[in-house]
Hints:
By secondary structure, this protein is α+β, with helices and mostly antiparallel strands. The chain has a five-stranded antiparallel sheet, with no helix packed on it. A four-stranded antiparallel sheet has the order 4-12-11-10, with helices on both faces. Helix 2 (about 50-70) runs antiparallel to helix 5. The protein is elongated.
Amino acid sequence: WRTGGKKPDAVGGSGTKFIDMTQPDQPLPDAKASPNRAPGKLPTDTYVYNAGVERQFFDNVKAALTSFSRDGQAYAEFIKSLDMYAQEILSRADMLGYVERLLGKHKDLFEEFKNIIHAVGSPDAPTHDDSWHSVPLTEIDFSRCRKCSPSYRALPRDYPDPPCSERSVAETKVLNDIWVSLPVGSEESYTFRHMRKNQFEETLFRLEDMRFEIDMCLDSNATTLQRLTMIYDELQFLSESEISASGSSSFIKSQRDGAGLGGKIYQYALDGRVLGIIHKHAIRRIYGDEGQEMLDLCYKNPAVAIPIVVNRLRQKDAEFREARSQLNRKWKDLTELNYYKSLDHRSITWRTTDKRATSTRTIVAEIKDRAANDGCEGDAALNARMEKAKEEHGTFYEVTMGCSDSFSGKQTDLSNLPKPTPTIFTPHMSFFYDGNSWAQKDAFHLISFALEKGSTNTVDKERCARLWRQFVGQWFGLSMAWMQDPATKFTASPEAIEEQFGESDNDEDDENDNDAVAGDSTTDGDQANPPAEAAPKADGRPSSAPAAEVYDKTNYFSTTNHMPLPNGTLVSTTQGEGQVIGYSHAEKTYEISLVGSIPSKTVTLSPIAIYCSLDPVESSSLTEQLRENDQETLDRHGDRFMIGSQCLYLFLRLHQVLIKRLNVAKDLAEEVSRDVELGRHIEKVTFDGDSEEGAKRYDAFLGLVYTLLDAGQGSADASEGGKYEDRVRHLLGNRSYELTTMDKLISHILKHLQTMANDDVLQSMIEVYRRHELAGKVKPSAFREEAALLSEGENMFAFQICNVPDSDQKICHCEFLGVIADEVEEADDDGEDENTD
């Protein structure tokens, strides 16, 4: 506090004079007079031309000389002149002459240069080194400084201590003035990538920022109120002391002399160091544009202004706390709504990542890279995949997850797994089909539904269906009886039969109508299937007599006018695939020889037990000859071997991805059902404690996929695709990001399936495959020799699918063969050379 009256001549009686530095031309205490300087004047040159000004001067000179000389030789000559002057090669006058000629028209720069030389080089100039203050930390060489940790270095020993006043003893002990944090990795470089935040995490960060801001506002307001309350209490005490002294003789004398202001003995003023930056900002916040005026009043007349400010701070403190209480309730709801979703960091980049990973270019390049590196991933491909992972997860992915098995680049360990035939097969890639018994069926249903709902023309649909019946279904272990299961479950009610055929059951038109209805799921010579309640017996006859009577009465699946299939026709039956041996008109039954059964088995079936006829397998003398010359077969019974073109490789890879994601969906459904803590974050599908909740949740997911596929063809709500991702997350949790692109994946599979159905080379390979299967055993060497003749110069791939013992798994080995047609030409050339010799 400062009191009114005369200024003291000395402070505390120590004899030190009081100097008002706000007044101009005041002499410095104990300043030594200089003959070249007027008394009371500061050496302005020394303090004006410091290192910061010098740096600015050199920047200006460089810009001026660069514009004057495009090749930069003028500035180089300027630096060379200074260097020669520093080495005392040039005198000061010579150096100034060179610089004057270089600067030329820039007289102001030359005058400033002479002033800098005079200020720095003057012998009587005081030593005042402030060069450190103008040097950024990035330009200081910390390599020789003390090291506390990998990221902290000490400042140079001659670095001036930064000014900091009013520190307490405790603050002095803990605050740091020596150690500087320096980046040691790539975190400060332009290559560093932070993990992206999803929209829900951004919402949480905004909420946290708002919480921080209101807490800081409340704390700064409370701190300012606490500081001003102490001053306010002291003002009250001084005011009471002044009132008590008003009856004294000195007060009466001062009133007569006219001393004081407004009858007051003292005029109070607030010391500028009492209020800090936080206190000033708090006062400015509550008064807005008039904040600075209130601060000035607090310093000039605290007895009047501070009580007003204190009351205002108390009022604002109550308002802020009430506002925070209301906002906390709102923020709590928003946090609960967004927290669980914010944990999903993959969904924001998954669509782009999955699109790149399932593209034709990526899949083909992967197998070719492994073929060039003996089944292992090459260094270039591995580094590229690591960089893509950094883009998605951030730079720290390399440290946290980069050492996982997925980035090892090594070949699959086959030590405890079925291996391909070693003499003819060297796998470059092996991939698994988990949950093969149920996942293959669900995948077949999804692909069939998408094919039926898609915009594919009728001819291609029929070709794709035939491809599934003749090759794909058999390759994955799906029986024809199961694939025709929807037809066997067809039930014809008496009302529907009567409405469809009317009372004239024996009319020719009715028969034609019956054939048209039954032909929806059959080909030429196809026979319809019995209803579910009339499941056939071993001979294929309906087990329910009333159902059979209905069929015979209505001519619906009737065998009365049945046209027998020719002998040798390949058919699909309830007992499996077989070949027609003969037909008994008396018994109205077929004698069928089942294909692939060991030993050969012959069964008797009625016509309604035959699903459809299959395309006959064309015999080939070349196949028979090659098989006779080849004595090698597959190592295990049940393995399947195939050589195909690129479209088959792409289909099998994407089909394996579909199987993998169905397994992910089922695992998530079971895991979410068991996790009690996720109850409020996910959608309920059944009552608590239901043992079948996992299966029901998985079925609900399949329903979402069917709806999405239906919506993709325009037959459902167009907005269904936008809701699908959120609905899957609510159903299976935030780790279901892989399932958000099921429609894209299935569409890619359909595209490659359609390409396979129209690829002549692959169709030829399938015919070779069927001939080997019909013969009972596949002979891979003979298969490869014939495939080389039929490949027509295309890149070929070899596949062998095996059952993993004691598990519901299959493993498919794949080898990139390249152009195997050249092998036949080389073999022919070698044969000609031998004949010539």
